[in-house]
Write a structure and sequence with these properties.
Blueprint lengths: L3 H15 L4 E6 L13 H5 L4 E7 L2 E6 L3 E6 L4 E4 L6 E7 L4 E6 L5 E6 H11 L11 H9 L5 H5 L10 H11 L12 H20 L40 E5 L2 E5 L11
Antiparallel strand pairs: 1-6, 2-3, 3-4, 4-8, 5-7, 6-7, 9-10
The protein binds a DNA duplex (16 and 16 nucleotides) through loops.
DNA sequence: ACCTCGTCCTGGTTGC
DNA sequence: TGCAACCAGGACGAGG
């Protein structure tokens, strides 16, 4: 389940291998990848073009091309890029230096979309709120967003328009760091709690990037190696284990339809008044 | 507008 | 041991 740290790790690894390289051949093996149909026949449009930049916006990977087109890739649950042959290959990019870059996606939720430059920013802006590690993600912004939502704070943090790039894992990790119960109504957080939340989101994501993402089932770096973040989860997937802060047994519940792990003591649910 | 739930998918795990 | 049911969850659309 690639979230911001995993996508950023992939981006950083692809960038030096792709920038300045031409796409000699583009093979779409799974037609579902490029649905719903966009403006272009993806493979034909991309072949012969040159990659000028590899960027990330939220959980999207963006390959910018010399022609002014951009290939927008969302990995969803199990998508990933690899420099070696894989099972479940859904597309292949052949570069002018002989590199064969494989797009693998076991569950086929991932999407490829080709857009003109002019449409890229409006498209991404419609999907994503501020970058959590950028200047736009302030306590004030987060407070405003949380204040108008009654849903569990965890569910709101998973809304990419509130903050781009958080998924189920890092949302739980950030809530633990901020000592906030995931089921709290978003609007019930105090200003101080929102401030903790904002800092905790940044810290959780920075740690994930530093560890090059978390490898649970399908995620692997393009060079084939695993991330290391999974060894440092404080709560995610750790029900029955002691909280690293207070030794209370980690509990599991559901929030926003997602498995949700938290420490009942560090992240208490206040009694209703 | 907001909120919840079902859907898309496959493979690993669980339970009988 | 066999095999079906269940579970994982990002984004999106339907319905309340």
């Amino acid at each position: 389940m690639p979230e911001l740290p995993e996508v950023e790790t992939i981006r950083a690894e692809l960038e030096p291998r792709l920038t300045g390289r031409s796409l000699v051949r583009v093979e779409i093996l799974d037609p579902r990848l490029t649905r719903p149909v966009d403006l272009f026949e993806v493979a034909e449009e991309l072949e012969g073009d040159m990659v000028v930049a590899v960027e990330r916006r939220g959980k999207y990977l963006v390959l910018r091309l010399e022609s002014g087109l951009a290939l927008l890739v969302h990995l969803r649950m199990t998508g990933g890029f690899h420099f070696e042959p894989m099972t479940h290959e859904r597309a292949v990019l052949e570069l002018d230096d002989g590199t064969r870059l494989v797009y693998r996606d076991v569950r086929r939720f991932g999407t490829w979309l080709v857009l003109e430059d002019a449409l890229l920013d409006p498209y991404l802006a419609g999907k994503n709120g501020p970058e959590p590690l950028g200047r736009g993600f302030t306590t004030s912004w987060l407070a405003t967003q949380l204040a108008r939502r009654r849903a569990p704070v965890k569910a709101v943090l998973l809304d990419q328009r509130v903050v781009a790039g958080l998924g189920n894992i890092y949302a739980d990790e950030a809530l633990w760091r901020a000592r906030i119960n995931p089921l709290r109504p978003a609007a019930s957080l105090s200003r101080a709690e929102v401030a903790r939340m904002q800092r905790a989101i940044r810290a959780a994501l920075r740690t994930g990037i530093a560890r090059q993402g978390s490898t649970l089932r399908d995620y692997a770096r393009p060079d084939g190696s695993a991330g290391a973040m999974q060894a440092e989860f404080r709560v995610y997937g750790r029900d029955g284990e002691p909280c690293p802060r207070c030794r209370t047994t980690i509990a599991k519940t559901r929030a926003g339809g997602r498995g949700t792990w938290y420490c009942p003591r560090c992240q208490p649910l206040p009694a209703e008044s």
